[in-house]
């Protein structure tokens, strides 16, 4: 690693992730406390009205209704997650912006962005990738063997659909792409190969989802997201791809399309083949996008390309 660029390799790679995690957890904790205070207040008021006055008895009554409090938190987990993610964005954007400034100051190669028309292939690829991966999960029945995944799915689809779209379709992908691709992938890519950077960011991305089904899904998706960033030369590419995948999943779940799809094995087989075919075509189209022109700024301020 370049000592001029990286003074502390461990903090350089894991410091942003630690900051992201600590901020997210802290904000989620205080959000949960904010949600529970009114509920606990009502319980205390009921205790006083019923004649319970000792602190110990009040605490026992509150603890006896802990199931109600837990249900309140479960019903608002998506909003809590989104609020936590929202608070991480300014910090991770600071890392992202600082890294770009440092790269320019150290005369590191900068890349041109892909043309806007090429994002069409990415949009179609995102839709068929989402459907295809879900179809494969239905065929393998892997979701049936993970109680954690089933519980997570139930929680994620509890809020009203507009809340799901805003929180899971926009806010969470934006926060995740800033940290996992904008900062972590890019930092490893600056000093290493694409494969190493993509695998590093995809593994951390997958592990952050907490259950085996989402880990596998996120690991595969994470590699595609890293490739999109590499190929398009802009964080907009993985951000857009991530949002399209999430929104497609939310829409097909809300409309019952996934339920209809999984009702017959023949449908699953047909849609899996179709998505693999279209996805392969879109991936080839993305591969054929004209390679970025690397702009190298020399010390005498002459600009060369290669």
Would you spell out the secondary-structure blueprint of this structure?
Elements lengths: L8 H41 L5 H10 L1 H10 L1 H29 L4 E2 L7 H22 L6 H10 L4 H31 L2 H14 L4 H21 L3 H19 L2 H6 L2 H23 L6 E4 L5 E3 L1
Antiparallel strand pairs: 1-2, 2-3
Q: Gap between N and C termini, in Å?
A: 23 Å
- Side by side, the strands of the main sheet go 1-2-3
Uncertain runs with pLDDT below 50, 5 residues or more?
295-306
Number of helices: 12
The main pleated sheet reads as: 3 strands, antiparallel
- Beta-strand share of residues: under 5%
User: Percent of residues in helical segments?
Assistant: over 70%
Quick summary:
With 306 residues, the chain is an all-alpha fold. The protein has helices at residues 9-49, 55-64, 66-75, 77-105, 119-140, 147-156, 161-191, 194-207, 212-232, 236-254, 257-262, 265-287; strands at 110-111, 294-297, 303-305. It is built from twelve helices and three strands.
Description:
This protein has 306 residues and is an all-alpha fold. The chain has 12 helices and 3 strands; from the N terminus they run ααααβααααααααββ. Helix 1 runs antiparallel to helix 7, helix 5 crosses helix 10 and helix 8 (194-207) packs antiparallel against helix 9.
């Amino acid at each position: 690693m370049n000592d001029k660029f990286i003074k502390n390799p461990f903090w350089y790679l894991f410091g942003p992730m630690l900051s992201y995690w600590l901020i997210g957890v802290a904000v989620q904790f205080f959000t949960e406390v904010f949600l529970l205070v009114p509920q606990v207040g009502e319980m205390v008021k009921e205790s006083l009205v019923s004649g319970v006055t000792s602190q110990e008895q009040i605490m026992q009554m509150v603890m006896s209704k802990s199931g109600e409090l837990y249900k309140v938190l479960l019903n608002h987990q998506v909003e809590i997650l989104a609020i936590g993610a929202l608070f991480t964005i300014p910090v991770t954007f600071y890392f992202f912006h600082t890294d770009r400034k440092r790269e320019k100051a150290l005369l590191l190669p900068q890349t041109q962005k892909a043309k806007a028309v090429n994002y069409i292939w990415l949009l179609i690829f995102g839709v068929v990738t989402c459907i295809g991966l879900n179809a494969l999960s239905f065929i393998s029945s892997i979701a049936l063997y993970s109680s954690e995944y089933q519980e997570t799915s139930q929680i994620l689809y509890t809020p009203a659909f507009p809340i799901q779209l805003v929180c899971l379709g926009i806010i969470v992908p934006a926060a995740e792409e800033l940290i996992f691709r904008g900062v972590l992938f890019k930092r490893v890519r600056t000093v290493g190969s694409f494969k190493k950077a993509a695998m590093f960011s995809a593994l951390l991305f997958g592990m952050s989802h907490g259950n085996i089904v989402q880990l596998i899904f996120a690991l595969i998706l994470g590699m595609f997201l890293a490739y999109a960033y590499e190929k398009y030369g802009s964080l907009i590419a993985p951000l857009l791809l991530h949002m399209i995948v999430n929104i497609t999943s939310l829409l097909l779940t809300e409309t019952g399309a996934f339920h209809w799809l999984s009702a017959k094995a023949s449908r699953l087989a047909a849609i899996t083949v179709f998505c693999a075919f279209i996805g392969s075509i879109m991936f080839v189209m993305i591969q054929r996008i004209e390679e970025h022109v690397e702009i190298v700024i020399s010390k005498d301020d002459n600009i060369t390309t290669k």
